[in-house]
Amino acid sequence: MALFMIGIGLNDEKDITVKGLELVKSADIVYLESYTSTLNVPISNLEEFYGKKVILADREIVENGVDKILEEASSKNVAFLVIGDVFSATTHAGMLMDAKEKGVSVEIVHNTSILNVVTETGLFLYQFGKITSIPFNYSDVKVPVDVFNDNYEKGYHTLFLFDLNPSEKKFLKVSEVSKYLILKGISGDLICVGCARMGGVDQEIKVSKLKDFVDFRFEKTPQCLIIPGKMHFLEEEFLERFK
Question: Taking the model in full, what pTM does it have?
Fold first, then answer.
């Protein structure tokens, strides 16, 4: 009996790995963590493809109901599905620690996440500095700007991840974040990369000045923003494709 922590990718039911799918099919209970990201297909697509009933695990279940999940995993095979990769969200690292402390056997299957798929912009992964997140109530939040300033001083790219609440269809947008960053003192003339629904077949990538994104509307969600630091000439050439 074990807990299977399985990353299922960013797009649809077929992004899961072969190993991950085999574990899901062998599971007695299947949870889908549903608050740190969102797929581009309904849960029914997963259930049909996996041949399993999928239980949505919201923030309350994941943060306060871990003991119940781990108790189930002590006598049954429990699959805990995570959109993207298993450990892109720190919450899931806490679940792993709790499982280890309780002596629950854990098997982990990784997958792609926003943290590596952003390289489709042409920016080199090893040139990214610290990643930062922007919450819905961002007006008095200063940490994202501090992170950017530190990264930019060192020549690193900064990835801004945005808050979301899929159950209520609420997603922070590039336009809102751009306005916030400018109000906090970041130059509107900096070249930025706006991204929407990365990893999906209909993903969108746009390169423009930060101030231009204030009035720019992506059609898709979730979204994120990158402010490049010092770029290699190949990165600059690649970004030209998205202007």
Answer: 0.93
